[in-house]
């Protein structure tokens, strides 16, 4: 007798043997017990999770001589014929090969006839998403009003390709990926039945590689047993599957932690000489760091696979990285997979990615608070204490400035306030503290006037309209500060006009400062300064801008715009 593959030999023959799909088997069993048998079922889920096997079990449960029953006997003629695939009442249709409308028309003609020997005619349509649109349309009427003796069971791995009109006429069952522990339990049962000695780590590696599919796991086990000569080891499994192995991964992670670029390159050379696929190498490395990420975040979690790593190894390696570093490394590995796939020199892409991880490992998290706290020295602690003291002093000065109010502003403008108290007379009360060291001086105000003239001269009317309700708050060694009303104005300054303002201010000052915007609780009236040139310009009227000609609705919209953006009207000819 010809050898029978393990995935065929160990195909479940009843609901009790269906692994990892308890929610499906329990629901179908209850439907059979209560006699609520649907006319159409739609099974969806990843490959190798038991969709076709469940369809055959359901067909046997309906046509068994002892049934309809939850436990088909697998001994009667009907069950044996279904198991052998030659039943006259159960039809298995491959939609990938019979996807046209003619095949569905033949099906529609045949469903009218009664079963030959069983209770039901069962049509199992595998990969139903492969049917054409015309074929689906031809199937609709039959699914909506099928004969009483017909049951349709459709299986697909791509449910999104099945039209909604088909799905709405079926009972849908979603098959989930089988867990590593469930697959491992079935593999142990298989090797015990075959009398094969197998290492636990080897079987777990197979279960992980199967990616939730029992059929894939049994196929891999079949190959490994043929190679291992009655003793299955993890080395044999790695050799057959082309895996790099956890020992190599452990060494590579240690080299990355030590930032040893030479060792990393040597390990890459060794793995390439051994003929390993580079995408497979990156895939395993990504799974390895995934295990470190999960362990770093939550420790050992029941039901989560850590890619065949032991607790002590996970604990040791995860301690060498921060969570932010691990996440960044995983992202870089995913980028490298695409680079290796499309690069004319995949080796260079792999080496570049690993060297980048190796070199940036120490600086990935340089700006995070946690890393700074770990790296702080006593000298840095003292410097931080001094900065905190200065900040407290500045906050007190700001409060005093708010108490002085407008009189302080006028005194400062007249030059009667000492330099150290200049910060107390910032233009208006603010909702956030003024940056330390920012001072409002005559020189600074003069530079701001020159900046405004620069903007006017260069035709920056939109910038001028945006900043007309803003106040110059002062400057320090790094920033010049503008106070702006709360709301839209601050966002416009920071997003749209920051570059224009910085170029203008630095062009007239030559200081190279950056703009900092600060929200004001109230917009102050501009205060005349000593020596400032005052122009006696009458205020514009509605006629100047044509506002008097607007309709009532247009005028209301304009008022709302003025409320949000200010009343910095610009003549049309000025912006041409």
Features:
single chain, 576 residues, alpha/beta, Rossmann fold, Helicase, Ruva Protein, domain 3, Zinc Finger, Delta Prime, domain 3, 5 domains, 5-stranded parallel sheet, 3-stranded mixed sheet, 26 helices, 53% helix, flat
How would you describe this protein?
It is a single chain. The protein is flat, with a radius of gyration of 38 Å. The chain has 26 helices and 10 strands. The model is unreliable at 362-378, 401-431 and 523-537 (pLDDT under 50). The strands form 3 sheets. The chain has a 5-stranded parallel β-sheet, covered by helices on one side. Strands 8-9-10 form a 3-stranded mixed β-sheet. It has 5 domains: 6-174, 3-Layer(aba) Sandwich (Rossmann fold), CATH 3.40.50; 180-241, Helicase, Ruva Protein, domain 3 (Orthogonal Bundle), CATH 1.10.8.60; 246-360, Zinc Finger, Delta Prime, domain 3 (Up-down Bundle); 386-520, DnaA, N-terminal domain (GMP Synthetase, Chain A, domain 3), CATH 3.30.300.180; 542-572, no CATH class. 53% of the residues lie in helices and 9% in strands. The N and C termini lie far apart (92 Å). Strand 2, helix 5 (101-110) and strand 3 (121-126) form a beta-alpha-beta unit. With 576 residues, the chain is α/β, with parallel strands linked by helices. The longest helix is centred in the C-terminal third of the chain and has 27 residues, at 378-404.
The averaged pLDDT comes out at 77
In total, the number of domains comes to 5
Question: Which strand order spans the largest sheet, edge to edge or round the barrel?
Answer: 2-3-4-1-5
Strand proportion, as a percent range, falls in: 5-15%
Structural class: alpha/beta
User: How many strand units?
Assistant: 10
How far is the N terminus from the C terminus?
A: 92 Å
Q: Note poorly predicted spans.
A: 362-378, 401-431, 523-537
Number of helices: 26
Q: What is the third-level CATH name, the topology of the largest domain?
A: Rossmann fold
CATH superfamily grouping of the largest domain? P-loop containing nucleotide triphosphate hydrolases
Largest sheet: 5 strands, parallel
Rg is 38 Å
CATH architectural category of the largest domain = 3-Layer(aba) Sandwich
Tell me roughly what share of residues is in helical segments.
Answer: 40-55%
CATH class of the largest domain: Alpha Beta
Which word captures the global form? flat
